[in-house]
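Hi again,

Forgot to attach this to my earlier email, sorry! This is the prediction with 6-O-phosphono-beta-D-fructofuranose bound. I've pasted everything inline since the attachment limit keeps bouncing my files.
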Amino acid sequence: MQFTRCDRTAAWGELQAHFDASGRALDLRQAFAADPARFETLSQSAPHVFADLSKNLADARTEALLQDLARECGLEAHRDAMFAGEHINTTEDRAVLHTLLRRPASAPPPPGPLAQPFADVQATLDAMLAFAERIRADHTITDVVNIGIGGSDLGPQMVVLALAEFAAPGKRFHFVSNVDGHELAGVLRGLAPEHTLFLIASKTFTTAETMANAQSAKRWFEQSGSVDVARHFAALTTNVAAAKAFGIDTTFGFWDWVGGRYSLWSAIGLPIALAIGAEGFRRLLAGAHAMDEHFRTAPLARNLPVRLGLLDVWYRNFHRFTTRSIAPYHSALKRLPAYLQQLEMESNGKRVDLDGQPLAAGTSPVLWGEPGTNGQHAYFQMLHQGTDVTPLEFIAVRDAAHDLPGHHPKLLANALAQAQALMVGKTDAGGHKDFPGNRPSTFFVFEALTPESLGAFLALYEHRVFTSGALWGINSFDQWGVELGKVLARDIEPRLASGDVAGLDASTAGLLALLRPPK
Ligand code: F6P
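Structure tokens for the complex follow:
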């Protein structure tokens, strides 16, 4: 595939010159004073989401140069190749088509080779949603346990929590991901097998943690005298044959062109459909599809995922910021930072380009965060007065879904005040009490937290990660970096039993000896 790495373009040099001349020293307070239209110019609406970018360390010239950079790198062609089903995941020789999962049944079928995958998507979606409705109506099932890890856990877990307001009462949802038996044992303790549905979620159906948890769950189920595995276990996987070999007949499939961290829109989203129903799940897909269309068709200058992805490049490679913090001002978005960590860091945490050549510029920042206002009372001190600058992302929701008086205005006031304080600072108190200000943030606003707005926001993030990854010239859709540890764990596990440390480095050998059970 043809690509031009951003650091090998003419626009890169121009951006560096712009950064040296005025970008590095941009002062947000002066920028607002000099440009009364700054808020309008540097904010925009996109489907279901409003984003204020005006408190970022950039101006119209920065954005224009970044858009030149995107054009020179071939961002639009790369985006179109993804939507067309070209094998842009080159190291695995796969298409990247999570957007096809969101294309509504009512849309015209895509042309050519995507027509059949689209038909398969619709058939699987219908079957999965029919199953979800059946289970929702079955009041003997009170507990749903999703066993999966990474993308087979984080997306469904985050969305089920985020959309709890839309969930039908009467079912509890549990998510078991860690191979640490404390997690599964803790969940099983509160369950009755005859009232439980286990979902074994694994794209590959080989992931060690998930297989260990699935085996233990099945053993627990059978040891209780229960036999109806067909009714109490379902598998969500691309590897239907392995699920059947495991003894699960009810399976919902998906395809190798759905990356794990992009899979909540597929059968992996079954817990979501069980929680919010078929209609709710379709609303989630519709929100994401609206954002897909925005990303696919809006000009670069008014394309929100593109603008965000370009800012990410600006911050990482010119300002050299190494982290970005997420502050959702909504407690239901508690797991959003963890979900976004996988999305961005597994996608863009790469050190070689598409040709396997070492990169000269930095890639994924570290993402981290907690719901506001909790973060305010933990680490915001560092954000305001620490030595490093961390761009912060506020997510605020206009309408509350509760009627406790006074809480929501307090919450929103805190979000606004923190973004304001980071920017304006305070320099008249002296020494320890001074705030430097000029600390950047982006502020997202939803009217309400709904399936549509959440779907749109997650797709916005996916496409933003796509944008920065495309400019860096990396493959955002593989994850080879997780493999080595898996292989070494397989070698170490039997050594814990045998005590054999031959060939291990001294540190690993010493720690292994300490962790062996006492004789
Ligand atoms: O270890 C990384 C990873 O491959 C993720 O990309 C993926 O989401 C997770 O493991 C789980 O994989 P699977 O769904 O195949 O069990």
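The domain at 27-86+298-474 is CATH 3.40.50.10490 (Rossmann fold). The chain has 19 helices and eleven strands.

That should be everything now.

G.
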